[in-house]
Design brief:
- Helices cover about 40% and strands about 15% of the residues.
- By secondary structure, the chain is of the alpha/beta class.
- The protein folds into two domains: about 220 residues, Rossmann fold, CATH 3.40.50; about 30 residues.
- A seven-stranded mixed beta sheet has the order 3-4-2-5-1-6-7, with helices on both faces.
- The longest helix is centred in the last third of the chain and has 24 residues.
């Protein structure tokens, strides 16, 4: 990863440390307005950057519909958050310790039929209460706000939310809708991360990771899109990009 981007993550680390320094709760959710805006890459990079300061850090993959952190860090997802919520005794077995530096990882685990309900459950709140006693800071990778209400269910357990927006992709309307939903859920919006450039050939910090799958609004859990679907998706995205560019010109 280029030096300038490494420094940007260090600056983000410093800003986040300042924002939560006066809070007893050091649990921060990282989300986005819509899919494919880079929030999972951002939270993985940020967690890694914080671990380099020798703080104990836990990254939780709570995006149970499309988990990716086990792929980012190349660990097993056989046991994870969903399994621990339903059986707290599995926590020690599910935790991946020191995946890099002082960073521990709790992957998403078995994909459940009811992610929002699990995240809003009493068991999830109790789990976070237990974990925050062990770590200096906990980062939670959450599903996009405009797609599902997962973050809202954890509002009482977190210090706040950092929202990732993608320059040239995230619209003002999408960002505004997401902020309104967070405010309605009494979630403290700590700030925004502007994600602009994908470094396809950079090494380290998972900067070359890109989403492979799309969220489905009917919540069908599929692992591989068909060839026809891939073609249709590409065509739809190309059409959307063209409309976006035309709109920019008219503006």
């Amino acid at each position: 990863m280029p030096f300038s981007i490494l420094e940007t993550y260090k600056a983000l680390r410093s800003s986040l440390n300042f924002l939560v320094s006066t809070s007893e709760n050091k649990i921060v959710a990282v989300t986005s307005a819509s899919p494919n805006e880079g929030k999972s890459v951002t939270v993985a990079n940020l967690a890694t950057a914080i671990s380099e300061t020798d703080k104990t850090v836990l990254l939780i993959d709570a995006d149970m519909r499309k988990p990716v952190q086990h792929k980012n860090f190349q660990v097993s997802n056989k046991l994870g958050l969903s399994n621990v919520i339903t059986d707290a005794s599995l926590l020690d077995e599910a935790l991946h310790q020191n995946v890099t530096g002082t960073l521990d990882l709790l992957t998403a685990g078995t994909i459940p039929p009811n992610p929002s309900e699990l995240l809003a459950s009493k068991q999830m709140a109790e789990l976070l209460d237990k974990l925050k006693e062990k770590y200096d800071i906990i980062l939670i990778d959450c599903a996009p706000v405009n797609v599902v209400s997962d973050v809202a269910g954890m509002a009482n357990s977190i210090a706040g939310v950092v929202m990732v927006v993608h320059y040239g992709t995230t619209t003002y309307a999408e960002a505004e809708d997401a902020v309104k939903q967070l405010e309605l859920a009494n979630c403290n919006v700590l700030g925004f991360v502007l994600n602009e450039v994908v470094h396809k050939h950079s090494a380290g910090y998972y900067s070359n990771y890109k989403y492979k799958y799309k969220y489905k609004y009917d919540y069908q859990y599929r692992t591989e899109p068909s060839e026809t679907e891939s073609t249709e998706t590409a065509a739809a995205e190309a059409e959307a990009d063209a409309k976006h560019i035309e709109g920019e010109k008219q503006a």
